[in-house]
Fold this sequence. Notes:
Radius of gyration: 24 Å
Number of helices: 13
Bound molecules: flavin-adenine dinucleotide
Helix content: 25-40%
Strand order of the largest sheet: 1-2-3-4-5
Distance between the termini: 70 Å
CATH topology of the largest domain: FAD/NAD(P)-binding domain
Mean pLDDT: 97
Strand content: 25-35%
CATH class of the largest domain: Alpha Beta
Largest sheet: 5 strands, mixed, barrel
CATH superfamily of the largest domain: FAD/NAD(P)-binding domain
Amino acid sequence: MAQEYDLVILGGGTGGYVAAIRAAQxxxxxxxxxxxxxxGTCLHKGCIPSKALLRSAEVFATAKHSDDxxxxxxxxxxxxxxxxERKSKIIAxxxxxxxxxxxxxxxxxxxxxxxxxxxxxxxxxxxxxxVEMNNGTENEMLIPKNVIVATGSRPRTLPGLEIDGDxxxxxxxxxxxxxxxxxxxxVGGGVIGIEWASMLSDFGVDVTVIEYAxxxxxxxxxxxxxxxxxxxxxxxxxxxxxxKVLPETLIKDNGVTxxxxxxxxxxxxxxxxxxxxxxxxxNVEGIGLENTEIxxxxxxxxxxxxxQTKESHIYAIGDVIGGLQLAHVASxxxxxxxxxxxxxxxxxxxxxxxxRCIYSNPEVSSVGITEEQAIEKGHKVKVGxxxxxxxxxxxxxxxxxxxxxxxADEETNDILGVHMIGPHVTDMISEAGLAMVLDATPWEIGxxxxxxxxxxxxxxxxxxxxxxxxxxx
Length: 473
Ligand SMILES: Cc1cc2nc3c(=O)[nH]c(=O)nc-3n(C[C@H](O)[C@H](O)[C@H](O)COP(=O)(O)OP(=O)(O)OC[C@H]3O[C@@H](n4cnc5c(N)ncnc54)[C@H](O)[C@@H]3O)c2cc1C
């Protein structure tokens, strides 16, 4: 049977479900089509499960040196089944929450695989959605005035490096393992690779990271990258940079052996498992794009500033359009698309003001551009840096590695970028984000009174340091 809607959203991940909630708030009759589970990658295979495991790893690592705090425990052991159960419980609770929000907004949810149809008896324009229902009932036909494609992404692999789900895995399979391997090779030292490296190392796994670029987390500021490399090595993680993995050398027996081309020649690596973490690929196939004028460039759907595709009534948001593939970006893009559909004039998303976080131990967070990018753009920069070693609260926590770095323009005093590595910096970056949104200067941050003792004092001090006025350095 055909159902009419103002809006049908293809994909119920963070981008899709948040867009649906905003649409409901605006009185737009909305349906979501989701082939898996509401919440998508972020809730089931990304942000939440990985952070739940990271937290268990952190507690385990802290417990192992609890005597530093004067807390004497017996032997500290790990029950990995319990670790996984805790993760699943958190996901289930949040999943219920999303389902509740759909009910509350009177948003119809179709559980099945959606495809965009071309012009048909239902509509002269492409955009009718056919849903192959998961429960095997007859296909549903949805006739929307507008569509948002929010089909997300999946792990990418290297050509020739086949994922078998056991010895060679991606983050999808890694999240489901029932027992920890004793050693692992991680191909890719980007955000996801480094989170896994840190977590598995804290769990006691022998970790080797092989990265193609000259440094790990290569999109971050070079000083952050360097400090992260130092701290990962301090944990015992082996890091090989400037290394090209050779998939054809993979040998699988009761573990994996693989070679990589490094400066000195060919180097062989061996471990129980190999985790491939080389980026994400947009889900653009099998969703009926060929029935439309929608353009796909370099694997991503092309959109304008309000996320319209070449078919102006069909929008696309989130990982499927590429750029910063982050949950908070997907949801903001969804809100902008919906507000445009509702006839409002939403402010464009300034990607330079999006905070980016890495939840390793220690954490990394940043907003704005790096020092290298600032110089490349022709800015005359001044830099303020402040170490957590001089921050009382960091010493109290027993986590004083890392620093806050603020880059400003010498002539205009504009803040160009803020970069942090250290304890809880993912919870601190929003202050810097707000400062940049409000066009604050380092002077204004420095004169915001940061309570003592807090980790946020490092931001205040780094801001003062921009003009050589830090107090505790
Ligand atoms: C290990 C890992 C850790 C991450 N950690 C973070 C983090 O800490 N912070 C952060 O901001 N981001 C993180 N991300 C990225 C984040 O998960 C994504 O940016 C976010 O989920 C993108 O949302 P989305 O709505 O675009 O797509 P998705 O969340 O991928 O949702 C797309 C949905 O569409 C559905 N779908 C696809 N095709 C169809 C179809 N034809 N019909 C019906 N349904 C369909 C899928 O089943 C899926 O549920 C992480 C990702 C990974 C893999």
